[in-house]
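User: Please predict structures.

Assistant: First:
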Amino acid sequence: EDGPTHQGVFDISFLRHIPNLVFMAPKDGEELNAMMKFAVNHNGPSAIRYPRGKTCMPSDNNNNRLSEIKLGKAEILAEGEDVVIIAAGNTVAPCVKAAELLKNDNINSCVVNIRFIKPLDEDLIISLCKRVKRIVTVEENMLAGGFGSAILECLNNASLHDVKVKRIGIGDEFVEHGAQGILRKKYGLDEEGIYKTAKEFLK
């Protein structure tokens, strides 16, 4: 709903290169609260990327409230051996729903909420990619320099050259003015778009 030059799709690319910066992206309000507490107590620069509007990820009930997060540690939301879907921030919810659609096609997806764009949970990523050789990354950001690029760098540094990666995000263009739902659908960032891209990728 912002104009072409005011879309928030560049920040991952221009922030993740800053030395020693801790860069977080919450999937819901509870994670945002935990990340705010983390940032206040962290001895160094930090940034939290959160979307405008309401979260689309349902929160846990009060008995399972998130009390803290650990530096550079991601969260596995679903287990699967056919494909790993790695999401950041408000793309987590549609990825969970896309995984449910894939399951109807007998495709089992591991869904990861990355939480920390920087530092990445490289141990988890490498561990998963030693078992599963298809990775889909999803971000509401430019593909150039985005968090999908960080995943590719991680795999290259670990010499995991047999892993195929499909990045879903914004190409080399300005995003036009429009409602969020319409734009997410246009760029394949809604649950249906993620589902179709992942299914085609696995053929």
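Second:
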Amino acid sequence: MSSSSIARTRSLDHLVLTVKDLDATVKFYESVLGMRHTAFTSGGQERHALTFGGQKINLHVSGREFEPKAQNVQPGSGDLCFLVEDSVDEVAQRLHESGIEVLEGGGVVNRTGAKSKLRSVYIRDPDGNLVELSNETS
């Protein structure tokens, strides 16, 4: 952390995914990743989010985004990594059994995370966002 920075970042509160189909996105993240869908009102408008742990993913429907928004919003441009409680070996098996395509040859791969090495499986959500499901390793 630079002492000359304008702001010292502590953590990430939320991020935004722009989606084509709100219902398909909610169904995927609830059924595959166990997230909870919440609807709330902000500025007089109904909004939608997915929550898990202490984090939140706000959902904007393509063409009906809330302002301010990212400069070049586009469904399917995200690349997300989630640390999961379950063994990724078991997750990979459940994904195969559910008919969800596992990328990278269909199995678990080794990667580097923010704090440690990771064992990961890769899938895509309904918009084509890359979703990495990982366990930290020593």
